Amino acid sequence: MASALQEPAWERQPREPHLAYQAFCRYRDMGAQRCLEPLRQDCSLEQLQKWLSRWQWVERAAAWDQHLAMLWQKHYQQQQQHQQELWRQRQEQWRETEWEYVRALQRKVDAILSLPVTRQRTVRDGKTVIIEPLNWSLGDVSHLVQLISELGRKALGKPEPSLQPLLTLLAGRMSPGAYGELVRALQEFSQEGLDS
User: Fold this and answer.
1) DSSP secondary-structure letter at 33?
2) Contact 57, 43 (CB under 8 A)
3) Which of 90, 110, 146, 159 is most buried (CB neighbours < 10 A)?
């Protein structure tokens, strides 16, 4: 008659003979191909069958298999959690990088806004004063502010509203040359940001 197993079932049971436990360990470690035939080198088939029944090898081996499966599952889950944490950290680092781009661009806008919009020059006669616009306009600044806003929302994870109406308005107010220069500058800035 089979006795109740002591936990963990794959460990040596109370009063289990040492030779019986050694034979069980070999049987247990065979995995799905378990059978008594390879164990006959040390014991008779009759003795092995008695131990198999008396010490509940089939149930204990099944408990061992379940234990190994749980260990594997735990290891797999830990690996998954590690990967998720790694990607979470990468996303956070990328957000920080994007935020640095926002701050760098903001500093550029601040520098532009500190410059005069026009310059004056006096012709040689000393009487004629010519006022010339510089190579930037408020439209240029507006485009840069828009870019800052887009990058900032992206870095902070906020939804991006549609800016098409603002782009259309700014494109109509800027000179074609200034608009083209701004587009080229923004493309260069975007490319440098992606390459670095």
Assistant:
1) G
2) no
3) 146
